[in-house]
Amino acid sequence: MRSVINRPTARCNTCQLPLRWCLCFAHTPVCSPLQLELLTHPREISRPTSSGNLIHRLFVTSRQHLWTAPNLPSMASVCNPDKEVWILHPNGNEPPLDIKPQDVQLVLLDGSWSESAGMSRAVSTWGRRIRLPLSGESRYWLRAKQEGERFSTAEALLFLLKMLKLDEAHLQLNLQFELLVYASFRARGQVQQAQAFLQNSPLTERMPEVLEQLNTKRSRENEADRGG
Q1: Tell me: the pLDDT tens digits for 82-104?
Q2: Cβ-Cβ contacts under 8 Å for 169 (sequence gap 6 or more)
Q3: Most exposed of 86, 104, 113, 142 (fewest Cβ within 10 Å)?
Q4: Strands 63-66 and 35-40
Q5: Enclosing H/E stretch for 203
């Protein structure tokens, strides 16, 4: 029997998933007039399941700022004075209806709920706190739900993209987000959860060739292992 004890898993340097489930071949860059700034907690930066990292990989002009004390990002280093800065917050105001996406700079807080709460207090004076009409159930099945309805960083951005009628950006992010969740289940060996997730996923209709390629790669790798 082949031993896997103490055998490290080779991972992609970009998406950080095991090489077997690397999704970079399906990467689709997203162009958007909305300027995105990610304030990322150090614990998120190395997590392959981080939807904030996914946003940074996909959105061409996005920037990621590591939230590490004592050298925290400053307002001057993040915020553009020529744009209206929005910070998503459940207790914020409703977004104005007449805003143009190109006039907005969105600051996303990427961390756990407790981590994001501390970040939110620190940046409360940077711009306008905005509350989005979040509804439905989260598709981020990878982490245990906390009390109340909670959504991932990518899902919060999806709500905003939809509100701003940035349909193509919304479509591409949604597909890549769904693909991340599916591949992460497969990387964990949770095949039943992956199949259950696919039942209500747009991937089966929109990206069948990607799913097929992932499954084909799995078969080839198993054959190589048996041969070795």
Answers
A1: 999 999 887 889 988 889 999 99
A2: 30, 31, 32, 34, 59, 161
A3: 113
A4: parallel
A5: helix 203-206
